Amino acid sequence: xxxxxxxxxxxxxxxxxxxxxxxxxxxxxxxxxxxxxxxxxxxxxxxxxxxxxxxxxxxxxxxxxxxxxxxxxxxxxxxxxxxxxxxxxxxxxxxxxxxxxxxxxxxxxxxxxxxxxxxxxxxxxxxxxxxxxxxxxxxxxxxxxxxxxxxxxxxxxxxxxxxxxxxxxxxxxxxxxxxxxxxxxxxxxxxxxxxxxxxxxxxxxxxxxxxxxxxxxxxxxxxxxxxxxxxxxxxxxxxxxxxxxxxxxxxxxxxxxxxxxxxxxxxxxxxxxx
Length: 274
What we know:
single chain; alpha/beta; seven-stranded parallel beta sheet; 8 helices; globular
């Protein structure tokens, strides 16, 4: 079988879902085009510390190559149509084809996590531009290459926030709900072309961004206590590792998932029951 080629957005964070997904697909023999807006990835207002050693997209590519995978990184802003087109074109030029797209890039958290009257419209625009517009632009650029081969897998990283209301997250949840809506419509449109489209909806994950946000919200003195409360609210009793969500993404990208499409799959340890 011809080697599959995947493009994954938002991969610079060493402890992030994008990097975990790249590692998981590399173990499955997939060639990887990993992307981000810059070498270290976008940083939220709560991410004030320097990135940990060994982080960054260049380090990820070196790690993937050390695993025996074909891998290359490309930089661009998915919310800019020209960049989205270029990221796809560069991946195809490097590897000769594109079979899999994982839309993982997301705007870093900031002032949009607030009461509606306190949310600046530029914060709203930033989140929607990256989370919704950026994913749409990447799919628009990738689909012609998948149609050419009559085979494709698209996985959009949404959130359980896109399914259920969460206090002071109207903007973030709205962007993730938009991804679910696009997923379901495009699954209908692209099914006849051999392309499946699914969304994965994580709950809490043990990523650097989640820990930074928790530290901002509660401070170091309450961090461990509040993280334990978060874990206790999850039926399985722990906050997910990125690798656990990446395993679901990898399945949806596989040959075996050929009859799974238009789904928004919660990977949340049972936190959300709908």
